[in-house]
Amino acid sequence: MKPEEGLWIIENVFQAGFDVQTHRHTGPVFGYTTAGAWKYKEYDYINRAGSFLYEPAGSVHTLECIENDTRVWFQIYGMNLNIDAEGNVESVTDGSSVLATYEARCAEQGFSPPDVLRG
Questions:
Q1: 76 near 25, Cβ under 8 Å?
Q2: Residue 29 and residue 9: Cα distance in Å, rounded?
Q3: For a designed S-S bond to 26, which of 63, 78, 96, 104 qualifies (C-beta 3.0 to 4.6 A apart)?
């Protein structure tokens, strides 16, 4: 994570049927799928193991996982503006908020703070 650049990199492991709230990106995103399959509800294209995806700043979409144990690395610049059904920004997600949530959940379960690259 490089907060000064607005960069955060995350590996997600999704299960079939999991959806990510509709969101708009404030910066570009690069996605690398290493296992499984997922798509955006707004498009027909399916991302499978070995695929690469580029999302320009301003992209709006709803991620839907279609296979169990789907693994995707996202290199994200900026924030996700999470959008409600009426198109209003409901919340904001960025690298710092994701890391804080992850660290809190680790602590709740008795795990040590994770080793995370910063800066």
A1: yes
A2: 10
A3: 78
